[in-house]
Amino acid sequence: MNSESRSGPSRLTLFAYRVVLRCYPATFRRRYEAEMVDAFREEWAAASGKGTATVIGYATHLLWDIVRTVPREWSAVTSRAAMLAFLAAGLGLIYLLAGSRPLSLKVLGCATFTGAIGLGALGLMARRWRAHLQLGVVGLLVGWLLASGLDLRPHRVLPPQGPVLPVKDRTLDGAEVLRRMTAVYSSATSYSDTGEIQTTYTTPFRRTHIRTFSTTFVRSGGFRFEFKDQFQRLDPWNEYAVWLEQGKPRSWWTIEPQMERPKDLAYALAGPAGISSNASTHVPGLLFPNSRIGILPFAARRSDLLGVESIEGRNAYKLSFSGERGWSWFLWVDTRSYLIVRILSHHGPLWAPAAGTEELLIYHPRLNISINPDMLTFRLGSAPTFVSQILSGGQNHLLFFCGGLSLLMTLLNVVHRRLLVGAWCWKKEVWLVALGKRLPAGALGILAVGVGLWLGGVELDLVMTNNLLAMLMMQVGFGCYALHRRTSGYARLAAT
Amino acid sequence: MPAAAAAPHDPEAELPLTPAVFHILLALADGEKHGYAIMQEVKEATEGATHLGPGTLYGSLDRMLKARYIAESERRPTADEDDERRRYYRLTLFGRQVLQAEANRLARAVSRARGKKVFAPA
How high is the ipTM of this complex? Predict the structure, then answer.
């Protein structure tokens, strides 16, 4: 081999290799890192003398070697308790992934986050806290990154839209399109639609909450509106229904599972207006023009006809409505049927109009069709019970597990007189127990719980709120336990 | 291989060895060596078929130290002979017994294969 053609790895390559070596447990690294780097330097130099292909081959070999040996070295220093925690975290991850449709990086991130906390905490309790804390921190960072910043999916689950083309009929304007649209709905003998509501929050990170709805209407006196929502990703669907029974409005909501008898249809449809992003009032208001439901809330404003756009294979007029500062609306109306196919609204705070919330309503409407009478009735559901919620699976299992674990911790700590702060979380209710001899630690725990509640309720995605709350409760409990054991590093991390 | 053997016992109980451990023991059979030299010797002896990565090599060395197959050499090389930072490893008596037992096991297997005319004619 020509020694002159050999060149060692660059400083950047060496740095990268040293960084990768951080994946190994600290004890292993301390003992062998220098020798591994020396070996790497020699091997790299030998490979570089044989050409780029050899270097790439060596890098691949090295990477595979790391992937194979890192878990082996960690298993050698991991206690049984931490292995059990790892197993639990893995099972939890599979459970979350298997039960979650669609799969998102956020779910994966939260699962990693939970696993990291569990691993770190149980590792700490097994008194091998340095190694597990390190792993916990890495997992926590990865989880947090996945949960918050690396959502690679397009935030709107829509096919790409085509260009907006000019309207051929130059006499047509926004007001005329609205007039024709209103006339179509008010004269419809029957109508049905299915649709989707996509609410996209842009802060603190972009995420989309999807709900569904359907409308069925017969001019002779039949009407049903249904709206379905999931409070949390793994929860059963909640349903809100409004229908006419012998001309009288009725409503039913899973949350308050009993048939209500509202005084009129407008009152009944106002109930789900907020949670359905006004899907319950937009089209019904046009179908019942003489009711007090009201028509599109922005239709009274000045509208601009922007042009014609292809929406899912059909041409639609695109109208824009100007609003107060921070508000804007777009409406797409089918050019042939004059039925609404899409409504987009943007709500931004005054100080940051670009941020805020986007609400997209997607309609799949059908006009003057034969309506099956079954589509106009609503079969009452049964009220979910405490036991049925647990047995029905979904997120309740996870919450029950977290809540039970926290309760167990609380009891154990009480028995051993080590309790500083304990918490039990079930659904949206949180019970706190704060006892203990050491007031500063207890106060820290209470503060952490408060911050956790605030974060869970205000800043983070509602879909995962209870998960996060449960995790935070666990973290506070473990953190305070760690503080009590004078391992303040983890306590600070947990409190943070 | 036990994670941390309290005391060496029956070499036969250690078998079979993983290819990495066998090749490392074989590399140390004719004298003490440092990690990179072991890596090189294994690669050359197997004509590149077995290329121990740093993670495999040092992980194996760590477990072999705990199992008392090998020990760190007390002799330190002189500065002109080699890098003083490198640790040298040597076979222990128990390690040599394990290597012999594994070599015998493999020899028996090869002999059986030869008896069944498994090998292609040269």
Answer: 0.86
